[in-house]
Specification:
By secondary structure, the chain is of the alpha/beta class. 47% of the residues lie in helices and 10% in strands.
Amino acid sequence: MVDRTQPVLARDLLAISAFALLLPAVASGARVDPSLSESDYPDFSGDLNILSRTLRQMADRYQPGGLPEFLLGGDLDYQSHRASLEVPLEMRVKLLDAILEADPDIVRVTPSYEPWLFPEWNASDELRGYMDRIVELTRGAGKGLMIADGAAEYYWENRLDWESFSDAFVSRVTDLATRYEPEYYVVVKEPAWYNGLSWSEPGGMLLSSPTVSDWLELTDRACSAVKRASQGTVTMVAVIPGDASGGDHFPESREYFIAAHGIESVDVVGVDVYSVADLLRVEGMLDSLTGEGKPHWILETWEGHPDTQDEGWRVWSHADWLALVSRYAQNLAFEGVVTFYNRCLCYAGSERPGSFQEWDEWLENRTPAFEVLEVIAELTSEVSEGWLLPTLAFSAVSLLFLKSRFARDNYHDREP
């Protein structure tokens, strides 16, 4: 997979030497708290709603077998899709503060591309500045930056043929990779998402339904373009889980998931999980893999979609979902987990503030889901402090290591 015939550059040797010299010090300074154990995973609530009861029961199925060894990220959903065009900067920053308070390793942003697609638009300069500020604050807090492709809201009303869509796609991810050089880039959010959550019917942003082969070709083009623009960026793709038995729930997603492991320009193959059914489908998809694969991440997760929920008990099921996912991810050897609807760290996602003042007040709150996420972050930080994970780039040594060819080769060669 990695061409080892290329000459090693002097800067690569410098990076390898620096890492080799400092590794003993890093290892001797490992501070994995010996008092921590599986019992320190976040507790489940005692709420009697049926979903929380189900999630508690499923914990027996996913015994973690040790402390979590994955990286933890949180999506700034006020910087995603339409929110990135409509939410004032101060509200985005306040939600970012809540995510940073929980202390994950990574902040993910999913910007809508309008401010770059239409530079003549009056608000474009201001909205680009919002993105710049979020990136500045994320890196200033010592967190890794993950960008996920959000396309442009414009395309939902002005659909494209496949050729135009593909060219716009490659241009967009190249531009943002060049501008921000993120540590991680979810280059393909979910193939079915762009097509209106369908593989079979034209919809969403597209005038026709592309095949799995079409998507695999575009994936390679786009991920290769990102790597040319930002060599240190870890490229990622994700799918909505498909039925591992080949049933009628997105079987094409399963096909794409398996085939993406063979694309050299893709570093990580991920899944987006929002339900118990998703968890079970992903298990089947992983079981169907053969041979050497790639690292796997859960690139989006929450308990359902808060915009459609109005039950008061959801505040508990959201927390219990995160408690289960932390065990699930460790049990199935995922290398990263990114939570999605993080406004629910502050208030129930179905609620809509009546004014900016009320919104500001709600963002001061912390829900049970926040408390669970905070516990997970504490556990994952104990492990990451003891092991210099190849994708962790928050110190001078690890940043240098990641940017070198040695780091990229090492990451590609890791067992899934």
